[in-house]
Hints:
Blueprint: E1 2-5, H1 13-21, E2 25-28, H2 30-49, H3 72-79, H4 96-106, H5 119-127, H6 148-162, H7 168-173, H8 177-208, H9 218-223, H10 226-239, H11 253-256, H12 258-281, E3 288-290, E4 300-302, H13 312-338, H14 340-343, H15 362-376, H16 399-430, H17 440-449, H18 460-474
Parallel strand pairs: 1-2
Antiparallel strand pairs: 3-4
Amino acid sequence: xxxxxxxRTDVTLDAVRRVAWGDESVALAPEALERMRAARATFLKLLxxxxxxxxxxxxxxxxxxxxxxxxxxxxxxxxxxxxxxxxVSFGDPLPERVVRAIVLARLANFVEGHAAVRPELAQAxxxxxxxxxxxxxxxxxxGGAGEVLPLSHLFAELAxxxxxxEKESLALINGSPVSAALVADAALAARAxxxxxxxVFALSAEAFKAPLEAYAPALDxxxxxxxxxxxxxxxxxxxxGAGGERRSYQAxxxxxxVPRHLGRTxxxxxxxxxxxxxxxxxxxxxxxxxPPDPDHKLGQILSNGGYQNAIAYPALDELAASWADLCLLAxxxxxxxxxxxxxxxxxxxxxxxxxxxxxxxxxxxxxGWGEQARHAAQRTFLPGPESGGxxxxxxxxxxxxxxxxxxxxxxxxxxxxxxxxxxxxxxLYVTExxxxxxxxxxxxxxxxxxxxxxRVRMLGPDCERLAEAFARRVFxx
Length: 477
């Protein structure tokens, strides 16, 4: 099955799920091909209409050589060079699904003619999604003002194969499709991760016998915040049919505030979804070609800063911060469940070091994972003046750094949720209680990976296996 692109607005978060996560191919609609053909023709007319026209990277050099003007022969020789010189970053490669998302996002600049490339080049780019493994793109060392370093790795071989003409090499490696792809990938994963967090915290509340009044419908209007109301509703839905015997007094703070902080994760998710959908469909080429209008018969060519995305990295930061806070709540709830005098679980069954079912040390691991999340969740800023680079390229793009931090915080959260889930499962086991119906599949998933503890064993491998299972769930198509 192929996704057909007619307009750039067809490049959406849902399209990323289909193409990048689901391995669908991409076809360019006939009307898109015709628009690109017409835009290419008028761009070439504009280029030839004025011998003194200045078009960055077309009639002039790149970067620190932007002041150098080319003769027509020099212009053609310059255009024929594939973009290999900027392929200097290295390190761990991006996941294949992210690279596919970059290729898809690259097409948003093309389909309405704003990159002024030949339709044949656009078709070659789309064809990359249907022709086997893509080039590896390093996730480290990408410190340029835009995204020319990673995009050079991705598109250099294609450019050499197709044979670039005026503006086409630059159109392949300029703009900010990488930022769009990174925030889109994080948003898709966050959808599943937010759902998982609600399930695990609901199971924890049941294991603890937390009073359900902390999630009552009346709080929706009293708190007055839509995302928190959504979180309360999700928790109520998951806990419907919960055991009737509850604590006779309020639960510890971490159980009562969890819907507010899960609400924060929903707000962060919505921010990331918005940033992704806007970024994926944005025209970010530099210079960008604006097709003809009544005031500009041959169109316009505009130098601009579209190659740096200012909404992706704050959205990634907010996701990372929300994951870090949930790590802390998971650690607090774990400690309270394991503390018999607070949880009212059978005294000593889970906390005495000389007991065959001792789990008390798990909280220490959560402290370690929580610290990793908090370190990762520090706010991202534009890189400082020491990272200036050459000439015009004096402010580096920060999205790669934000993406890696969000990924690290998310990994820590999956680890913390795995520990809390194991402890909640054990609490239900030792008290011979079932899970509410809507949490029964989660409990079965936990126990399929980590059977209830009957005698002492090293729990680290169990926690790791469950964290890996949770990660697979997050990235399932």
